[in-house]
Write the structure tokens for this entry.
Amino acid sequence: MLGALVAWTVLDRLAWPYPAAVAVAVLASAVLGFAVSRLLMERLLVMPFSMAVLATLGVQLALQNGAQLLWGASPKFFGGGWIAPVQVGGVGIVGQQLVIFLAAAVAFAGLAAVVRSTPLGRAMRAVAQNREACDVVGLDVERVVRVTFTLGVAFAGLAGALMAPILVNVGTTLGLPMVLRCFAIIVLGGVGSVPGAFAGGLILGIAESFVAGYLTLQLRDAVGFAILIAMLVVRPQGLFGVRVRA
């Protein structure tokens, strides 16, 4: 939501080019993520997980209402991006869709490389597995959480800025449908798996397109929940997840 609205502001009010609007949106989202992490998320490390969930819900409501004060409740027409049709393998798509796919592929490849092959990535995996053990060996858990949370919010801002030309009208409520789809994507790909998240997003997007194109548009939003339920029944660890013993 913030990424899309910041990109709209830069594009519409400042008349900057679309790539610059995307860059500013990512930067603004990263600053927001850093601030929320410092003010809230790092303070919740010693709290039960349910407290963090409720806290992020509160942040979501606060951001949505704050955005309504800044931008108003009415949707804004987003006039940027590459919306000219292109042919890919004999299939006609909007150019922005190709940009989104390429940007997602690069972003996920970079994130996977960081998580797998860098000291920061190893620290992320260690904190995710056992935070108490990380404290014992002297790992700066708060710093790892701060960097991870900031990076995640920056990626969310990038997604909003890239999706805005496809959505055409952007407003303060566009984030919630994306969040609901993310639950299905995470379960489908496997919790903690970067390649799984990428594959899960592709599968869900293709499934929604087929349902909307060959059945009815009204059933499109139900596809994610149907996949979520089916995956929990058939393979709870997801496509790329690993079953572990408690």
Remarks:
- Strands lie at 76-77, 85-88, 91-94, 169-170.
- The chain has a mean pLDDT of 89.
